[in-house]
Known about the structure:
It is a single chain. By secondary structure, the protein is mainly α. Helix content is 67%, strand content 0%. The longest helix is centred in the first third of the chain and has 30 residues, at 6-35.
Amino acid sequence: MLHLSPALTAYILMVTAVLGLVMGSFAACMAGRIAVGESFLRGRSHCDACGHVLTPRDLVPVFSWLALRGKCRWCGAKISARCPLTEFLCAALFVGIVLRYDVTLQSAQYLILTVLLLAIALVDCDTGLIPDRLLVAIAVDWLVFLPFLNGGALWENALRGLAGGAVAFLPLLILVLIMDRVLKRESMGGGDLKLFLVTGLFFSWQSVLFLLILSCILGVVFSLVSGKTTGDPENPRAFPFGPAIAAGVYLSLLAAQSAVSAYLSLF
């Protein structure tokens, strides 16, 4: 559908970008509430500083922040630029998925996954923790679409996903247990391991290897560039690995299959 005409392509991508802006706002709100222990399913959106309930004109992605010059309408408190940046980022990520997978059920599944990954990255940056409820949501996203992908090959899809999850989790778990013993400290958080497990469900075992390598490279880059740590007094050098895993998963959705095929073609 995406390539039927230039006009239709432009329209679909515009709608996708708008949807990404909205879902980016939702992801930022969800992550912010989870980080402070609030429910993101109940209660109206409000200013974090004064608690005033926000009106619809305060909630238009990006444009409200620009119109208010990054400040609360009522108390003047500064609104972090992370909000519009998250919305822009989500819009770009959504467009990337649709360009890669067109208007399909596969795209729908990966758009949901993208929102959850974005929220996980934000929460992990703020708290050093990856909430189990978001990991469960990723697993549910995989499970719900199982009967409808690849021509409805339910058991084939299930076995492929379980194999990918096992390859992402089990060898890494063994390695982490060994490293913990050698270093006498936690080498990787349990949330990171569980994130690899549930995201591995979306990939073949070959693509999982690409994901693991890419995530590790991105983890090193992110830690050096940001210098951010989790604040764990028992392991002061620990850094939030969730954003690197989330970025690795997203990039793997776009490129892992092609990269693996190109590599195998060399032999």
